[in-house]
Task: structure prediction
Amino acid sequence: MSNRYHEYSKSNSANRYHEYSLQSGGKSNRYYEYNKSTSGSCKKLKEMLTKSDNQVCADCDAPDPKWASANIGVFLCLKCCSVHRNLGTEISKVLSVTLDEWSEEDIDSMVEVGGNSSANAIYEAYFPDGISKPKPNASIEERTKFIRSKYELQEFLKPSLRMVSSKSSFRSCVSSDFSSFTVQPHQKNAADASRSIGTLKVKVVRGIDLAIRDFRSSDPYVILMLGQQKVQTSVIQSNLNPVWNEELKLPIPQRFGALKLQVFDHDTFSADDIMGEAEIDLQPFMAAATAFGDDEMSFDMQVGKWLKSSDNALIKDSTINIVGGKIKQEIHLKLQNVECGELELELEWIPLQ
Result:
């Protein structure tokens, strides 16, 4: 055997081995590109799971859900997941958070909905008398009845929001519901973005145990900000537990974010000192306002909830109710970036005439 034959055989064998390894387990460029895309999508899903409302089952509040309905946009426990499977994929497409491969479309659907709180703000808008969510130890019969009523029959939605076909997803339900104030990708015009869709009336009720910024007390006032808009309360002299009961109004534009607030101590001869701040997520309130705010309701009921979590400044869950025909939300906040202080407010929706 000549040296030339030996070199050719060695080279050819190496090439064949290289081709085989790529086909049967070697990592090609295409593999790495796919893996990079998949890992990015999984990261979005894991980020959603860090939110406190997504750390319990959307239907029974059991902890640590490992399943999800991709088209509805909620995280589920194993027991509720089995009921969802029986609804059929046209109503609920069930996937394992840890075991199944998720498509970009499925993950985008979950992200678009926002998770348990956003979905439940629609699907659990109000419960008729005698109806409540099942507990984590509920029977399969109780779960089945509740879940079918919630998603398939849509008995807890406002009737006018019920889908023409129960085979549609949550996204199709809210697409028209939120279209009046959700920004579409093609909306670039500043005038369109700032057009008012209604008015937010904020009643600044009182402050509790506010921080001392003067010798023994403070002269507090509150500033509210929504986008470029800013309004403020009057100054109350020398009071760490001030009662304002002042009503301030802010037009809500089509493109809106969180309602931001700051508490300051008024100083005559120097810059005012900050006494804490907080943000209010308006999405749950606006979901309820859009669903119920234009109707004349003759009875009072709960129509939504903003849940206390480590991601917000709530001291307790904040419920959204119809009171005397008006959409209202009572909010109790712990002021942030300050040693102490709380603030109580009430939101009210004023629709366009």
